[in-house]
Design goal:
Layout lengths: L10 E3 L14 E5 H5 L4 E8 L9 E3 L4 E7 L2 E5 L2 E5 L4 E4 L8 E3 L6 E8 L3 E6 L4 E6 L2 E5 L11
Antiparallel strand pairs: 1-2, 2-3, 3-10, 4-11, 5-8, 5-10, 6-7, 6-9, 11-12, 12-13
Length: 156
């Protein structure tokens, strides 16, 4: 595989979340390095969080492993057991099926970046720890439900 030109990586902003949660992702963007390379078995992204931005809603995956490494800036990792300050070189990982909701928050006054690598299971379910919502992904199509499995139509 030739050296990748990161400047040519697709840039994704926003999120797939429905409102009102989509608006919470302001200040978050990601460079899709795995897409640039044509990878299909796992995703590789560099996520940029502007000051005050969050990486996601706090969540955990049923079928996908995740790994993250802070590249620049300081972030706060929020998990079930509390908060951890993450600095450049610090890593965290989450095994599929372990209900440890997680996300990063940039509480600093400058942008921060982290590398995230995750498996791309053909079928995936992620649970959002702090709200009554789940995402089901099948064949690249996403649908949201409440945790009881009924179709999601807004916060309860």
């Amino acid at each position: 595989m030739p050296k990748l030109d990161i400047s040519k990586a697709p840039l994704k902003t926003g999120s797939v979340y429905p409102e009102p949660y989509a608006g919470d992702m302001k200040g978050r963007s990601s460079l899709r390095l795995g897409d640039l390379a044509g990878l299909t078995q796992y995703g590789v992204n560099i996520v940029v969080l502007e000051p005050g931005a969050v990486s996601s809603l706090r969540h955990w995956h049923q079928n996908e492993d995740e790994f993250a490494m802070v590249l620049d800036g300081d972030l706060v990792l929020i998990e079930n057991d509390g908060e951890t300050i993450m600095s450049p070189g610090d890593c965290a990982a989450w095994k599929a099926g372990v209900a440890n909701g997680h996300r990063f928050v940039n509480m600093s006054d400058r942008p921060a970046r982290f590398l995230v690598v995750g498996s791309k299971a053909p079928s995936e379910v992620a649970t959002y720890s702090d709200i009554d919502m789940m995402i089901h992904i099948d064949g690249g199509k996403a649908r949201f439900t409440y945790k009881d499995g009924t179709p999601w139509d807004g916060p309860r």
